[in-house]
Amino acid sequence: MTCRHIEIRPLTPALGAEISGPEGRQLDLSQPLDAAVFADIERAFHEYAVLVFRDQRLDPAALAAFAGRFGPLGRYPFAAPLPGHPHVVPIIKEAHQTTNFGGMWHSDTAYLERPPLGSALYALEVPPLGGDTLFANMVLAYESLSSGMQALLDGLKAINSAAKNGGTVRAAPLAEGTMVGRDLDKMATHEAVHPVVRTHPVTGRKALYVNRAHTVRFEAMSEAESAPILEFLFAHAVREEFTCRVRWAPGTLALWDNRCTQHYPLNDYHGHRRVMHRVTIEGERPV
Ligand code: SIN
Question: Is the residue at 151 inside a domain?
Fold first, then answer.
């Protein structure tokens, strides 16, 4: 892909790219971007699905303003946002905590009727080593299935619930006092039926849309009947060759397309603090 206004360095053959200005010059995302620059960024987003910008200085308003170029911002149902910034959620793991937010492979909030189009995560404080985030490409995951399995999955729907695994994907406190609505009754009301294979509204490509954190069963089957195929799909979806890995530094911003990726924040940095700000962009009902 050629772009005049940005430079693209792919992370792996599967997905992900680091983005800078032409000739490696810094892009300053805290300033309003020209329409032509933003158009290149948006094209790269659809091509690479995970974009990484280094050395940014984004206060919560600037983070929300940049993410807001992609669409209206969403609200996360289980955490309190920053005061005065209703769309910016702090994701904090303190040095004494042992569980991390979202600590398993997932796509964001698949239990909502309209899950986010994408999410932006900005690093403020990171451990000296560890705390990377892995991403996997769900288009590749779908396209590498046999034609027989694709035919079985096309047209199937699945139940996605916030309460799966006792809500473990969120059960870790984000930071003491910031979690809201953690009880399982409230999580159980967050449930949605979505196609197992969804079509990306921009690229038209088909992507596998089940994830270990939220997908409970196929719509017309019991959990026991669904389990063998779902287990296969959960493992297949995140095969190493479908992935990339983002190593954070203060000032790193990553933006991912939630319609065709899953991610997994590694929890390998006990004893250190990690502080991120997170914003989601509203999405459409998966079809
Ligand atoms: C998330 O799942 O949105 C958090 C990702 C991370 O902390 O790296």
Answer: yes
- Predicted confidence band at 185 (pLDDT cuts at 50, 70, 90)? low
The Å distance, Cα 225 to ligand 1 centre, comes to 31
Residue 172 has pLDDT above 70, yes or no: no
Catalytic entry in 108, 170, 257, 274 = 108
Residue 19 lies in a domain: no
Catalytic residue list contains 257: no
Distance CA(213)–CA(111), nearest Å, equals 10
d(Cα 151, Cα 142) in Å, to the nearest integer?
11
Residue type, 24: G
Looking up residue 125, the CATH number of its domain turns out to be 3.60.130.10
Q: Is 277 a catalytic residue?
A: no
Number of domains in the chain: 1
Identify the domain containing residue 103 by its residue range. Answer: 77-248+258-281
Give the per-residue pLDDT at 35.
95
In a domain, 36, yes or no: no
Given a contact cutoff of 8 angstroms between Cβ atoms, the answer to whether 213 and 164 are in contact is yes
Residue where the block lists tokens 């303003």? 65
Pocket test for ligand 1, best of 276, 277, 281 (most atoms within 8 A of CB): 276
Of ligand 1's listed atoms, the one at least distance from the Cα of 274 is 7
* Residue 185 maps to a domain: yes
Question: What pLDDT score was predicted for residue 78?
Answer: 85
